[in-house]
User: Fold this.
Amino acid sequence: MRTTSRYRATARMIAAIGVVSLAAACSGNGGAAGGGDAANYPDENITIVVPFSAGGPTDTVTRMIAGPMAAKLGGKIVVQNVEGAGGTVGAGDVARARPDGYTVLMHHIGMSTAPALYKSLGYKPLEDFETVGLVTEVPMTIVARKDFAPATLQDLVTHVKANASKVTLANAGIGAASHLCGLLFQSTTGVKLQEVPYQGTGPALTDLVGGQVDFMCDQTTNTSGQIAAGKVKAYAVTTPERVKSLPDLPTTTEAGLPQLKVSVWHGLYVPADTPPEIVQKLSEALKVALADQGVIDQMAKLGTAPVPAQDATPDAHRAKLDEQLGTWAKIIADSGVKVS
Ligand code: MLT
Assistant:
């Protein structure tokens, strides 16, 4: 990420840097300014900013596609975690980055909820970004610490209604997918719970396995392994159909909470005014990555799948973002949640 005075973004939080190196022969000298030169793009490292902690669901999906994308582009991709405020810190930094294709953002449903939750957000999703393409839509699971008393989703509802002031609900900050699902759970059951915010659901899940928090709602790309290993208790998945990789896990409808439906769509973004030829190169590389058998297999193992090729495009992504901004503005206004 290259912004002049905003290296504080880097100082603020760089949790983890991984380099997916590729055809070194075709990589540029890595240092020189790209300057939005579409013909020679990429001639230095591309950074994909993940606005949540390393090892979490958004980070996992990003690192899956980074390799095949870099191979198609013939360059290097660096994954950088810039955490904070439910993903709005990392998104804000990319909005202010140079529009030259070397700073890319992986974000999810949180891009469409933040304007309704934050009075002073510092960016406008439709105006300050170019959409590159959708990536995947991940189901969520309701999971609890292994020794938590409730055995079923209905038991959980009864338990939280009887012990609302004592039960802790983890999430990745206001506007994060885990927060939204938690909001839906609370508005569906009519309880207000103690929310415990983290910088991502990666660290939240670690604490859940360790018994420090009671339950949370999180993406299958993060919870599948712990569920399969029996390290957490799993109550339901928030999609209309069961997830193939978790065949024994009922849907929220089967488990008696049909209103609790949500899945987490993800997409890639670059700063507004990034040359359209560069956006097209990134979108083409994304399509190649989503057609990669290795990516398809990894996603299936973690309960999700790539979007169809026609959705991995700037226009389809922009249409989704536009629709979701409207949808969540209403849901959040009705829920009465506000952040100054
Ligand atoms: C993460 O990567 O930590 C999650 O996407 C956080 C969330 O939105 O719940």
In short: Residues 314-335 form the longest helix (22 residues).
